[in-house]
Design a protein that fits this description.
Belongs to the glycosyltransferase 68 family. The chain is 35% helix and 17% strand. It is built from 11 helices and 14 strands. The chain has helices at 13-31, 67-71, 79-86, 160-166, 188-196, 201-215, 219-222, 253-257, 266-279, 293-302, 313-333; strands at residues 2-6, 37-40, 76-78, 90-91, 93-98, 112-115, 125-126, 132-133, 143-144, 147-153, 171-175, 245-250, 284-289, 306-307. It is elongated and about 60 Å long. Bound molecules: 2-acetamido-2-deoxy-beta-D-glucopyranose (NAG) (2 copies).
Length: 337
């Protein structure tokens, strides 16, 4: 059997990662009674990903994550493998997850799930052969055989009984899976899934080379002990030192578009960075940011010692926006603070 989550396409990398964690938890519940496999929905057409001129659809997960590591937590396959093994580009059942039209009821909270009329306009339409067409990550030949809407209130595993009992479909897609909540946020399963989401090796290598060359940071010097197999890795708190630099993730666009007033001005951010550098006696600062070109120019003037991963055109084409986000996160994660 195949199960498959999907998030609305215009969301960021981190939300997608968070939804993966929730669905992994659902999968673990299903695996207690039946063999299910999670088909990883290809990446592409995400809100944060805006490099023009590079077609960014149908991107397999292996471009960003290490599949063997994911597979040590739950069984997963790429969409291409699903296509090859399922005998055609068909998804038997699409469930669009939504809330309840009547909203929250006063009184006790209960987990529930019911088949209900679709609240929002359906993003799928029937073609002349009665198949459902819609956005399937750039796979235009993919079609759905049946679409229906489920109102959900509760954690990911609330869907399990429906998948186990109510449908006989061999492949099920859960659209808008972000409507499900975490089963046990912060519990053992949650952390195991997070740890299994190891970034793809080729991106880690790029990040490590950059750390070494521009930030005097290596695993030996920083005392970061890394094992390829996350299940074998024992995290001893406080042993890793981190590289001799400050890691800063400066988010601009989301906030500006959301008209948030508590977004620090660039001047404010630079002041904060300087005081942190002083406090930790560091000289270098690595900055990951989605700021626009003019803001970056201003930032360079205000903070000339700033180090950024500035991809060449070839690197952009090779790693894509998602890969660059991973490289940035990898370098930031190795900072002293
Ligand atoms: C699933 O099946 C049960 C038993 O037939 C039914 O009561 C329930 O409403 C169904 N749930 C959904 C979401 O279709
Ligand atoms: C489509 O799926 C819904 C929900 O499982 C089901 O009630 C309905 O009978 C299905 N329609 C067809 C044509 O199979």
């Amino acid at each position: 059997l195949t199960l498959w989550p999907s998030t609305s396409c215009r969301r960021g990398f981190n939300l997608r990662r968070d939804v993966y964690i929730r669905i992994a938890s659902l999968l673990k519940t299903l695996l207690k009674s039946e063999n299910w496999v999670l088909v990883l929905p290809p990446w592409g057409r995400l809100y944060h990903w805006q490099s023009p001129d590079i077609p960014q659809v149908r991107i397999p997960w292996s471009e960003f994550f290490d599949l063997p590591s994911l597979n040590r937590n739950i069984p997963v396959i790429e969409y291409e493998q699903f296509l090859a093994e399922s005998g055609g580009p068909f998804i038997e059942q699409i469930y669009v997850l939504q809330g309840y039209a009547e909203g929250w009821k006063e009184g006790t909270w209960e987990e529930k799930i019911d088949e209900r009329p679709c609240i929002d306009q359906l993003m799928y339409s029937k073609d002349k052969h009665e198949y459902y067409r819609g956005w399937f990550w750039g796979y235009e030949e993919t079609r759905g055989l049946n679409v229906s809407c489920l109102s959900v209130q509760g954690s990911a595993s609330v869907v399990a009984p429906v998948l186990l009992k109510n449908t006989s479909a061999q492949s099920v897609m859960l659209d808008r899976a972000e409507n499900l909540l975490h089963d046990h946020y912060g519990g053992k399963d949650y952390w195991n899934t997070r740890r299994s989401m190891v970034f793809a090796k080729h991106l880690r290598v790029v990040g490590d080379k950059f750390r070494n060359k521009y930030l005097q940071s290596t695993d030996e010097a920083d005392r970061t002990h890394y094992k390829e197999d996350w299940t074998q890795m024992k995290v001893k708190m406080g042993t890793a030192l981190g590289g001799p630099y400050l890691g800063v993730h400066l988010r601009r666009k989301d906030f500006i578009w959301g008209h948030r007033e508590d977004v620090p001005s660039l001047q404010g951010a630079v002041k904060k960075i300087r005081s942190l550098l002083e406090m930790h006696k560091l000289e270098k600062v690595f900055v990951a940011t989605d700021a626009v070109e003019e803001e970056i120019e201003l930032l360079k003037k205000l903070l000339p010692e700033m180090v950024r991963f500035e991809p060449s055109w070839e690197e952009l084409e090779l790693y894509k926006d998602g890969g660059l986000a991973v490289i940035d996160q990898w370098i930031c994660a190795h900072a002293r603070c």
